[in-house]
Amino acid sequence: MTEPKTEPAGTPAPPSNISRIRHFVSQIELPSPKAQVLFWGLFAAGLAMDLWSKKAVFDRLPYQGDLIVVIDGLLNFVRARNNGAAFGICAGQPFFLAAASIIALLFVLGYFYLWHTKQTLIHIALGILAAGICGNLYDRLFNEGAVRDFIDVYITISGREHRWHTFNVADALLCIGVALLIIWTASTGKSDQKCAQQHK
After folding, report:
1. pLDDT per position as a tens digit, 96-116
2. For residue 28, what are the CA distances in angstroms to 31, 57, 200?
3. What is the pTM of this model?
4. Nearest of 113, 133, 124 to residue 184 by alpha carbon
C-alpha cells in the first residue's frame, strides 16, 4: 500500500486558471483616454446617425419603392431592403452575415485594445468601422435579416441613368474607415522606405 504524495512544506500551490486570467488582464495596457474618447465618440455618433437616418427615411416612405428627390439628377432617398452584403453578395443568409459582422466587430475591438497603436488616424478609422458594422448588424438582428438602404446616387449621361447600388450611412462609414486604413498603410509604407534609404 503506497503512501499518498504530499507537497513539501512551504511549496506554493500552482496558479489556478482564474489567477492566470487575472494576471493576463492586469498586463493589458489600455489605449490612452484620448484614444478611447475618440474611438467611442465616433462609434456612438456614427451608430446614432445611421439608425436615426434609417428610421427617419423609412417612416417617411412607408412603401417599398417610394422615393424622395433630394437633388434632381443626382440623389434620391428610396425605401429598399437588402438581405445580402454589399452588392447583394450572400443574399438570403442572415445568420452567416450576422456572424461575419460579429467577428469583424471583435477584430476591430481587439485591434484597438491590443495593438497599442498611438496613431490618431487608426483610432478614427476603427471607431468609424465599428459604427458601420454595428449599424448593419442591428438591422440583421432586428429587421428580419434585411438591411435598410435608402441612399440612391445616380447620374444621367447621354440620356441614360447610371446608378450606384443603394446604400445607407453604415455602408458609407465602412467605406470611409477602410479608405482611412488604406491611406495609413500607404503612408506608413512610404515612411518605412525613406527610413530604409537613409540608413543605406
Report:
1. 888 999 999 999 999 999 887
2. 10, 43, 37
3. 0.78
4. 124
